[in-house]
Amino acid sequence: MPNDFTTISVDAMGGDHAPAVVLEGVRTALEADHGLRVLLVGPEEIIGRVVHGRCTPVPAREVISMGEHPASAVRAKRDSSIVVGCRLVKDGEAAGFFSAGSTGACMAAATLVMGRIHGVDRPAIAAVIPGAERPVVLLDVGANADVKPAMLVQFAFMGRAYAQVVLDVDEPSIGLLNIGEEPTKGSQLAQEAHTLMRASVPGFVGNVEGRDVPKGTVDVVVTDGFTGNVVLKTLEGLASVLFSQIKGALTESMTTKVGSLMIATSLKGLKSRLDPEAYGGAPLLGVDGECVIGHGSSSAQAVANGIAVTARAARGDLALRIRQAIAGDASTSRDVTPPGT
């Protein structure tokens, strides 16, 4: 293969509808990107089904299911598709890893096998929210329920790098999720994090509120994993309910059915813009390599999009950018004395 190919390892067994949607997603991704190469990891009888010159099967005899304890399964199943996929990145054979399998197992494998970037206390999961004004990178959305102020600073630097590489934002604006805009609002954690971020994070605009996430007021919103996950699931649920209600309202009578035909194209365009599958998955930021985790219910197109996002992160040297940002921040954020100490 030419040296300018970007190679991504893909978990053939990840997701509720694997392996069928994964195999289809791999084909779609390869057809869309002629500079892409895929190492498809899984049982030999499965991975041999994709016949493509830029898809190489990599056997893995074991599979980690959604119900298994993540860390224990990763340690016990060293020949699982998730662990082998991460090992290919660690060994330099792949530039990134994509899986729609167990989020916990992907996190554990990426952290244990790829390792953390030096200086990163905890990796964070980011999600791209399709906001009204612009897409918003929200992190953490589930990796770390309990955090310290300095960790939120690291999340800000990691989210900033992701917005630059994947969303093409040169100078991202960054907000800290809080219950008010004033620096003195919120918990002690939020107030201390605000002080640290104001002193060290480029593009930090201060506190933002929950309504600013769907509005797209800033490019990056930083919060702890518990709050971020609640926000993400609330937005997903609300979007689903709204579209269901709109569909019901447009089909309740002959008059509304006729009217719906007139706005069908606009509604499809709106749904496409608000579809989180367009971004293909959530990156695990802070590990020493590119790792993108797709939703368990991912469609084939979502898998293809996830592979594309992983390749884009690899081409943009995302892990290197995070490493440089964290190294540059090491002598800054931890030297600031928070209020009340």
Description:
With 341 residues, the protein is α/β, with parallel strands linked by helices. The chain has 2 domains: 1-120 and 286-316, Isopropylmalate Dehydrogenase, CATH 3.40.718; 127-277, 3-Layer(aba) Sandwich (Isopropylmalate Dehydrogenase), CATH 3.40.718. Helix content is 45%, strand content 16%. It has an 11-stranded mixed beta sheet, with helices on both faces. Helix 2 (44-47) links the parallel strand 2 and strand 3 (55-59). Helix 1 (20-32) packs across helix 11, helix 3 packs across helix 5 and helix 6 (149-166) crosses helix 7. The longest helix is centred in the C-terminal third of the chain and has 26 residues, at 225-250. The chain is globular. The chain starts with 5 loop residues before the first strand and ends in a 12-residue tail after the last helix. Mean pLDDT is 87; it is low at 331-341.
Please name the defining characteristics of this protein.
single chain; 341 residues; alpha/beta; Isopropylmalate Dehydrogenase; 2 domains; eleven-stranded mixed beta sheet; 11 strands; 45% helix
